[in-house]
């Protein structure tokens, strides 16, 4: 009798759990649009405030894709500007409705947030005052336009903000070139000109003049003449402005030439002629700066150097590493260093080599290895992924993001430089991103999710012992049916171990076989909220994002070697119905989808979303992006490894359209008419080929869509695309059931005939 209450309580608990699950509703396409995120996160230096822009899927709707590269077209996405008090969690929204903000930047005190707003077809400079919770527009006493690619850099001592503007006459000159390329009436493309026409438009759009705006009275100081600038930074005392500059020379096809690069600084108090730290050179050089913006380090030919703008030119830069790594002469010659970070106070530099991590002081007196990698290649390959995200101000610790390679154990660690040991601060199965450490306070903010739900933002101390949730953007998802993800391991045809992310159907029942939809691209490891996978799970399907091993020169083989092995694993485990497997991908994944169905007929249905099908015709098929397609094939993502004239057969072998006669899989092609990345004219070649061959093919072209077809169009097209995808799989998975039924009847008839 004493056990009865316990049994009753367990029964009540089970009824409660199952009842709660039963009350949950399906996750729909409308829900996918409604999922919110906090973007453009910016933490104030004192760690008091986090600013960001809250937006849902509607922010991407309505883009005029046909005006890509139009110098007069602004398209800042709309969202809610929010200011979060990190200590209390209080949220303030300075505007009653969504605006179009960009380039959120705090001042050094952390009490003013500067940003641009798009108002009609222009940008305005605005400032939010954290003390009054009010926003005002800075009335700039200058009629030059704020540049769409402009930075915002706030002076630490003066009431000035540095921004980029277009020189007078820029809009008229650039628009004349753009209109000639798009409207004619006669367009001339001259191969003797140094630039392709669209490269010239891009080069002109990259240029701006740098000015300083007084935020109190709107007066302007001219700082730098027109140029293509980046990496602009003002030193802590407001004396020096450092910057990078790119000088375009010609259109390039190999991503290695066609421009020269320079790094310089200018004294803001005198505005004397700028001095080049790194004079014009065809090689890029990356610098690391201290927090004060005065000391800078760089790597060159395996050695690391240090200099300072205050003493620049009066003494030679220090070589911090030459001959200092080992006493043995041969070892000295063998070690080559690359630069990782500078300590915030500039007193030391963090380096890496094939041997491990090193530190060296600013006077080059104590180069030492602080973390040694294992000797064996297998042992090195097995090391967790670690990336340094912050060097503590006191120089004692390195904070490193952490992720193991064989399981979902992720988070952040602290490396003790003195002891040479890693300490787990927060590592677990959750998914983390966006680590932001306050410059002047013991505050860290970051994104976190359980790996399935959308992110929220959290704060913590640097000891990671006081986590606090700052946002709850999608509370309603608790009432929705949701997938759960799992990391799976399998071996491809070559025996190489691969990973994939498996998403389970909602209301999953062990022992039951389900349809499977694969979403392919390249390599996947981390899970994380993905609308498509959750939508397929709510259709009653498994979703899988499998990894493949792409080989330079032979990319077309990777998907059939890796994807099919992943499917086999799930079929062998009794999870997946082998006859109901679909495959799809977007962009490069769409290309992979069309290519793989020319090599195997095991898929019931296949969907290519904005993916090319003919690399040869694709080479010059996206004029607005210049030579990107040539570079992608020769030295980039397509991995062919040579030009069409060097490797014609490889281009032929990796173009699905030339093997359309082999396709037995029903194929759906989805494109956007305004797609400047992968024009629908390329994808449609597969439609015409398969139709000519009498194959099952459908092409849907969204006339307002861009890259991503209907999902990057207007809201009604977003719904339409997913409905077509669901209907396509449902139809062809059902066809497999009908064929099974026909075979069963046929087998029964044969058995009966034999008995007769």
Describe the structure in your own words.
The chain is α+β, with helices and mostly antiparallel strands. Among the domains are: 155-285, no CATH class; 481-729, Alpha/Beta hydrolase fold, catalytic domain (Rossmann fold), CATH 3.40.50.1820. 22% of the residues lie in helices and 32% in strands. It contains 14 helices and 39 strands. Strands 32-33-35-34-36-37-38-39 form an eight-stranded mixed beta sheet, with helices on both faces. Strand 26 (410-416) and strand 27 form a beta hairpin. The termini are far apart. The model is unreliable at 13-20 (pLDDT under 50).
Largest sheet: 8 strands, mixed
Radius of gyration: 29 Å
Q: Can you name the CATH architecture of the domain at 481-729?
A: 3-Layer(aba) Sandwich
Shape category: globular
**Sheet with most strands: strand arrangement:** 32-33-35-34-36-37-38-39
């Amino acid at each position: 009798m004493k056990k009865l209450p316990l049994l009753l309580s367990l029964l009540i608990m089970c009824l409660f759990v199952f009842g709660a699950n039963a009350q949950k509703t399906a996750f729909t396409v409308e829900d996918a649009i409604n999922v919110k995120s906090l973007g453009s996160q910016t933490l104030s230096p004192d760690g008091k405030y986090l600013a960001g822009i809250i937006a849902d899927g509607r922010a991407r709707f309505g883009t005029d894709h046909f005006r890509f590269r139009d110098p007069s077209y602004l398209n800042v996405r709309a969202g809610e500007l929010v200011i979060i008090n990190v200590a209390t969690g209080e949220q303030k929204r300075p505007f009653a409705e969504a605006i179009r903000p960009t380039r959120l930047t705090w001042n050094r005190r952390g009490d003013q947030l500067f940003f641009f707003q798009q108002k009609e077809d222009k940008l305005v400079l605005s400032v939010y005052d954290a003390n009054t919770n009010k926003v005002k527009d800075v009335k700039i006493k200058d009629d030059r336009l704020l540049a769409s690619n402009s930075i915002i850099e706030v002076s630490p001592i003066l009431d000035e903000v540095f921004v980029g503007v277009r020189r007078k006459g820029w809009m008229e000159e650039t628009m004349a070139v753009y209109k000639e390329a798009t409207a004619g009436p006669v367009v001339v493309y001259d191969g003797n000109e140094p630039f392709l026409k669209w490269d010239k438009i891009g080069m002109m759009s990259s240029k701006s003049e740098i000015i300083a705006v007084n935020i109190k009275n709107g007066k302007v100081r001219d700082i730098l003449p027109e140029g293509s600038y980046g990496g602009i930074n003002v030193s802590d005392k407001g004396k020096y402005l450092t910057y990078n500059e790119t000088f375009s020379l010609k259109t390039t096809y190999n991503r290695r030439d066609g421009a020269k690069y320079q790094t310089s600084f200018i004294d803001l108090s005198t505005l004397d002629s700028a001095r080049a730290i790194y004079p014009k050179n065809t090689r890029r050089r990356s610098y690391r700066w201290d927090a004060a913006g005065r000391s800078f380090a760089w790597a060159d030919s395996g050695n690391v150097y240090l200099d300072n703008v205050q003493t620049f030119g009066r003494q030679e830069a220090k070589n911090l590493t030459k001959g200092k790594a080992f006493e043995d002469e041969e070892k000295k010659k063998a070690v080559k260093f690359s630069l990782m970070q500078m300590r915030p106070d500039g007193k030391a530099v963090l380096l890496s080599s094939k041997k491990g991590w090193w530190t060296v002081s600013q006077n080059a007196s104590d180069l030492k290895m602080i973390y040694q990698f294992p000797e064996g290649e297998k042992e090195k390959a097995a090391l967790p992924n670690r990336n340094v995200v912050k060097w503590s101000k006191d120089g004692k610790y390195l904070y490193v993001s952490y992720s193991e390679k064989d399981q979902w154990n992720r988070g952040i660690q602290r490396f003790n430089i003195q002891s040479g040991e890693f300490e787990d601060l927060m590592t677990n199965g959750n998914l983390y991103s966006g680590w932001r450490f306050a410059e002047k306070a013991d505050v860290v903010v970051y994104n976190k999710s359980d790996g399935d739900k959308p992110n929220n933002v959290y704060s913590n101390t640097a000891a990671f012992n006081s986590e606090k949730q700052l946002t709850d953007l999608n509370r309603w998802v608790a009432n929705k049916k949701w997938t759960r993800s799992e990391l799976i391991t399998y071996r491809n045809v070559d025996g190489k171990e691969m990973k994939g992310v498996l998403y389970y159907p909602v209301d999953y029942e062990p022992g039951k076989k389900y349809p499977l939809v694969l979403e392919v691209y390249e390599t996947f490891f981390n899970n994380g909220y993905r609308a498509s996978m959750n939508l397929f799970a709510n259709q009653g399907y498994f979703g899988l994002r499998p990894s493949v091993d792409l080989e330079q020169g032979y990319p077309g083989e990777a998907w059939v070697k890796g994807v099919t092995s992943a499917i086999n694993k799930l079929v062998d485990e009794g999870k997946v119905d082998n006859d109901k497997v679909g495959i799809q991908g977007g962009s490069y994944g769409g290309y992979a989808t069309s290519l793989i169905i020319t090599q195997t007929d095991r898929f019931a249905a296949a969907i290519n979303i904005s993916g090319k099908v003919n690399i040869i015709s694709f080479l010059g098929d996206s004029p607005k992006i210049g030579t990107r397609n040539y570079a992608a094939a020769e030295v980039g993502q397509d991995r062919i490894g040579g030009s069409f004239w060097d490797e014609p057969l490889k281009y032929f072998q990796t173009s699905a359209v030339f093997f359309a006669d082999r396709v037995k899989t029903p194929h759906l092609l989805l494109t956007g008419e305004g797609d400047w990345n992968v024009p629908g004219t390329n994808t449609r070649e597969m439609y015409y080929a398969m139709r000519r061959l009498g194959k099952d093919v459908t092409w849907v072209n969204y006339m307002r869509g861009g890259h991503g077809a209907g999902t990057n169009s207007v809201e009604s097209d977003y719904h339409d695309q997913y409905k077509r995808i669901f209907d396509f799989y449902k139809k062809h998975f059902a066809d497999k059931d009908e064929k099974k039924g026909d075979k069963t009847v046929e087998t029964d008839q044969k058995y009966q005939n034999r008995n007769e």
